[in-house]
Amino acid sequence: MIWPVDLIIMVLVMICGIGAIMVRDLLGAAILFGAYSFMMCLLWAIMGAVDVAFTEASVGAGVSAVFFVAAVFRTSRRTKD
Amino acid sequence: MDTLISIKPLLAVLVSLLAIPFIAYSRSPNVREGWTFLAAIVKFGIVAAMLPAVLNGMEISCSLVEVLPGLSIAFRVDAFGMLFALVASFLWIITSVYSIGYMRGLDEHAQTRYFCFFAISLSAAVGVAFSANLLTMYLFYEMLSLATYPLVTHHQDQEARTSGRKYLLYTVGASIGLVLPAMLMTYHLTGSLDFSPQGILAGTASRGTVALLLFMFVFGFAKAAIMPFHSWLPAAMVAPTPVSALLHAVAVVKVGVFSIVRVITAIFGTDLLQTFDLSTPLLLVASTTILVGSFIALSQDNLKRMLAFSTIAQLSYIVLGAALLSPKGVTGGMVHIAMHAFGKITLFFCAGAIFVATGKKNISEMTGIGRRMPVTMTAFFIGALSIIGMPPCGGFLSKWYLVLGALDADKIAILVVLLFSSLLNAGYFMPVVYRAFFCPPEEALFEARVQEAPLCCVVPLVITAVISILLLFYPQPFMNLAVMAAAKFTGI
Amino acid sequence: MESLLSNFLAKYNYWVYIGLVMIGMYAMIAKRNLVKKIIGMNIVQTAVILFYVSIGAKKGKTIPIIAHGHEETGHHAAQAIDYISPLPHVLMLTAIVVSVATLGVALALAIKIYRQYGTLEEDEIALRINEP
Amino acid sequence: MKTFALITVLLLGGLLFYGTPDFPDWGDPASPASLHVSPYYIEHAVEDTAVPNIVTAVLADYRGYDTMFETAVIFSAGIACLFLLRVYRRKSARTRLYRHNLTGVTLRIAKGGKLPEGSAEFERIDSVWVPYDMIIKVTSRLIVPFVQLFALYVIAHGHHSPGGGFQGGVIFGAAIILYALSNDLRRAFRRLSEKAALLASAAGVLIYVGTGLLCLLLGGNFLDYSMLAEMLHTDAIMARSHGILIVEIGVGLAVMAVMVSLYYNLSSAGRHDEGL
Amino acid sequence: MSAHFPGLVIIIPLVAAFLILIGALLDKRLAFPLTALALLGSLVTAIGLLARVMQVGVVEYHLAGWAPPVGIAYRVDHLNGLVLVAVAAVAFINLLGTRPLVVEAFGDRLGPFYTLYILLVAGLLGIVVTGDAFNLYVLLEIAALTGYALVGMGEGRAPLASLNYIFMGTVGASFYLLGVGYLYLVTGTLNMADLAVRLPALYPSKVVFSAFVICLAGLCLKMGFFPLHAWLPNAYSYAPDPVSSLVAPLMTKVMVYVMVRIMLFVFTPAFAFDLTAISEPMVWMAIVAIVAGSFLALSTRRLKRMLTYIVVAEVGYMVGGFWLGNRLGISGAILHIINDAVMTLCVFLAAAALIARTGSDAIDDMQGLFKKMPVTMAVFVIAGLSIIGVPPTCGFFSKWYLISGAIAAGQYGFMAALLLSSLINLVLFFRIFEIAYFEPFEDHHAEHPTGHGRVLSAVQEAPLELLVPLVVTAALLFALGIYAGDIVSLIIDKAIPLGIV
Prior knowledge:
The structure holds five protein chains of five kinds. Chain C is mainly alpha-helical. Chain C contains five helices and no strands. Chain C is elongated and about 70 Å long. Chain E has a domain at 289-501. Chain E has helices at residues 5-26, 31-56, 78-106, 110-129, 133-152, 158-187, 192-198, 206-223, 231-238, 241-265, 268-275, 279-299, 303-323, 327-358, 369-372, 374-388, 394-409, 412-438, 464-482, 484-495; strands spanning 59-62, 73-76. Chains C and D meet through helix 2, helix 3 and helix 4 of C and helix 1, helix 3, helix 4, helix 5 and helix 11 of D.
């Protein structure tokens, strides 16, 4: 565990999280959410939770993001906030 | 006190309930009314069969299920309950006959429903009479409130709807809002709700609590129409007359006062009320109701409304009797249940008969009716006498005992109230009789073709009128029961 | 001051998790777009997972897979102190599955809503509902 | 709304903040959570189940019951999505697009129209027009088998390395989703139809539950894999290890099928005609 | 075999869920009988389990053969034995009754519907039976997830309501999970019994208090306790009728059960009632919930919506009764879980029948229904009386205990709220009875023949399939009332820890 890496990832997690809810485009939000999940996965991997990280990588960053994109594709990208 | 275990009380309650499927699925009106009649007679038979044992000082009890720890649905027939059950079940027979005449005479709709709910109401009334504890009583009390709702609103028009609302709101509302918490508080204080001749609250609560409970009970049993919880009764007069007669002169309102007297004597106990000196406020309430009720009755033109206010006043006699806490007063109050029942039902039957025969509801339209319907109006006269409390009618007896009770208790004010209210009673009844009989022929409002109501209507009112008179001379069953009950409750 | 700071630093993972829960909740309450709300919901769920994972962490210890497990079976047992605690990981695997399942259903509903009202904005939906 | 949200969030933050100072320090090996139950797992997992990956051992054996319900959760998500979105009425009103494979010419065929002669050379494409992209198609066609193989490896090797049924299942599902993304939904259906996916998801969970039930019928408690020893001709410990493998396969199958089924329903909004 | 009952009660429906799906792929008609069979099996097992608990006391079942706290254990005592039977029975009766409605509404997706239905029931049963705090979360989610899907299939605003339900439900469940995490953080265990042993030493810790508050907040959210009830009315009233008659009786009640379980058997009464000063505020919140729920019910003229507000008020009853913290109050709350489940089932089933026949759920469209559907209306009246609290229906007896508890605890405000709510319920139900009784029947189909897609021919008595369960439920209301004393003394009394007076 190297603390600067840790710190950078945490900051990135926060940024991606805030970005995902702030960005005014749902497709962008979906992608940012994927990035958020991936950062989270890195964080967990650093903490030694490899299985959880593995799962999050495949589920959060992978399939969930695809689901979001699919849903956004079937609805609309538009968002007011 | 000997106790008999028997299912007779249960049977007495269930008879009319069991009759309902037969009534509901009868092919023809005749069969249906036949079943009603049969059920009424069987019910009376069962009640009467228990009479000798009760007169011998026995109590008959029957416990069904224990619904709550230490609390069961149980019946216990004592003298007081017997008195009331006897009146109610006997009058059901009479009223059944009358109903047939009235309902057919006016060609009312939904008669099957009417007879069904009538039967349920009677079950409930007898259930209240025979209950061994407050919980059972509450159960049947609520059952009665709900079962009479379709009867009150029988006409299904706007007026019936409003009255039905009022009726439910007062009776069920008060019982949920006041009786239920009072009952629970009692249970919390004493751990029991069984009726006991000496009361169960003694030694468990302070004066303030007892007073609070007392008034929660007295006002909570709104069927007794103690002011200010009285206004449902005149409103409920929209019901068909047999309903008004049986339920609002006999079963419903009497269940109310019966419950109050029961609670005063068997939950609080006369001693406790004496100790805490709570009879005075109770007397005050009752007296107020008597006087105000009578005054309002004076001003009524609608015959049934007038009778309703008269009932309000008369009911408080019973409460008054119990509140006197003296043996004679209690006896008077109890006997008044029977006396008033016979007298008032006669009056209601008369009002109904007049309505069937002429379609008139207002007193002012009844000028000269005595010439056309002499039997009915004679019976009316007798009933009125009984209510006023004049010999040769049964009413005299109960008033007499009430007066004695008041004297015993050294409550001169109550004496004055009683006498004054008798005057008022005379004041609103006599003009009706006078107008009916003693008017110049030219003022009479009725054609010659107006005749007595159908036989089914007339016979019952004659019977009740005759009984009203007979009760003065042969009051034994009721009198003995009342004396026994009063002796037990007051411990003398 | 020193202790406060060290206390702060010693638990920094927990502060992150609190921050993420707050972000997620804010999105769920304040945002009017349904997909945004769903994202917020997922952020809350991952924050909880982060919390659990942080419970299990042990500084400087290794991942909960026993090295050369097969050769040493039964000989000298693994020392609990050497490994990161596995239980929270197990729980969180389940929680991740739950979150993706919830996500699937939520998105399905969002699509259904869009099919019905033609928009994902809550205020616009409210307008559509009140229209007829 | 925003102020309300802010207030709520701050209150919540305060509540969470309130308890935190009493937390054991992060990463403290002596925190109570690390001292009570989990040491048992670390110290006994191998001798109890012969699975070096403690997480897998706990997941599929000690707390296998949780995992069974986890699988049931994902299964119900699949069914829920199907239940909510699936549209069974066929809408033929849409115009369909066909592309001539050799020339890249796109034909728009109106409702009720028919394809010209030699339809074998035409391929139906999605109505949202996307350019034909050789690179994507070919690369993903190349990648997909390897991804699938990797997924199987992850499932099978969950005993020794990170991974297991769930991760493997997701990866396998992702491979099929990738196939569907790079080609189109109709082709994916040819590989794994809706019914097959449903059947596979149910079958996957049934493998799990069935294993548990089998243990119960063999006289043990539900999911007590050691009861399988006799059937598998091994001792109780290896039976646990094998039992874990069996249920992991079940989980993998179910998760794969559900992920694909979720994608089918979400990407086509339940119509199952054309996807992303 | 009876040793496996705690497991079987969940496993039977769970296995059935997958068989139903596979069966329905072969033939749609297989779905219903399979579901019925499985739920019957579950019900029988639950009853057997309760009988066993009453004979021998607490029954434990170690899943996968691992003893707690290492493995997951089911622990069945009097409390969950009773709730288990109620849940299984309600689900079974509702299943039988709603078949015609389900076929009508979901004829093309019977397989998924019944699969979700039985998974929901399995989840609820699991919540009740489990003795592991985290396992409870998983089961909670399975019940919730299937619930979202079923609710979301209703007409009109149902999807939106369901999505809101998802948000609230997920936050609630996440809070619960977080609370459990806090507890795990300081104790290292997830088994409820083990937690109860290890927690007392940690009571002064702020973490435990936070865990307590967070758990409670999550559960309150899930059960729709008043200020957090916003999702409930929409979700339950827009849900398809066969679903709302399953979800409304069970979901909130099971969540109340979870609260009782967690507070009594994880935090122990000593902490929940004595060490935290939270009982009093909770009772006051319950009072607000009851009053608000009742008045909200008064303000709507749609039948199902009114009933859902009543559910909100009833949740207040149970929560308030529990937090009175004395034996009577808690008995009342537990008894009310059972009674309210049956009462709510009864009203919602009756409402489903009425709505199916009239095609409208506006109270004003119920004219003349006493004539047209006498049996359904009679059952509705009985259920209404039970909700009002008229003896000898069961509603009276739970109210009895609740009020007794309030008096014993000196919480007269709670007593007043209960009585007020009874009175308002009286108004609510008699308002409906009046319309159905007084006003002549009007055929609304003539006005908007295609307004509702599920109008079944002319208005007439509900189909026999629905009537029989209705009548059975109504009979149950009486039976539960009459045996209330026995239920309390034989079962509930033993379910409450001895320390509570």
